[in-house]
Amino acid sequence: MSTIENLNMDRVQSDEIARIMMSIGRAARAATAELANASTQTKNHALKAMAGEIRTHKQDILAANQQDVKEAKQGNISSAFLDRLILTEDRVADMATSLEVIADLADPVGQVMAEWTRPNGLHISRVRVPLGVIGIIYESRPNVTADAGALCLKAGNAVILRSGSESFHSSQAIHTCLTAGLSKAGLPIAAIQLVPTTDRAAVGILLKDMVDYIDVIIPRGGKSLVERVQREARVPVLAHLEGLCHIYVDKAAQIEKAIAITLNAKMRRTGICGAAETLLIDRAVLDTHLKPIIGALVDAGCQVRGDGMARAIDDRIEPATEQDWTTEYLDAIISVKVVDDVDGAIEHIRHYGSHHTDSIITEDQHTADRFLKEVDSAIVMHNTSTQFADGGEFGMGAEIGISTSRLHSPGPVGAEQLTTFKYVVRGTGQTRP
Amino acid sequence: MSTIENLNMDRVQSDEIARIMMSIGRAARAATAELANASTQTKNHALKAMAGEIRTHKQDILAANQQDVKEAKQGNISSAFLDRLILTEDRVADMATSLEVIADLADPVGQVMAEWTRPNGLHISRVRVPLGVIGIIYESRPNVTADAGALCLKAGNAVILRSGSESFHSSQAIHTCLTAGLSKAGLPIAAIQLVPTTDRAAVGILLKDMVDYIDVIIPRGGKSLVERVQREARVPVLAHLEGLCHIYVDKAAQIEKAIAITLNAKMRRTGICGAAETLLIDRAVLDTHLKPIIGALVDAGCQVRGDGMARAIDDRIEPATEQDWTTEYLDAIISVKVVDDVDGAIEHIRHYGSHHTDSIITEDQHTADRFLKEVDSAIVMHNTSTQFADGGEFGMGAEIGISTSRLHSPGPVGAEQLTTFKYVVRGTGQTRP
Question: Residue A74 burial by CB count (10 A; 0-12/13-18/19+): exposed, middle or buried?
Answer without folding.
Answer: exposed
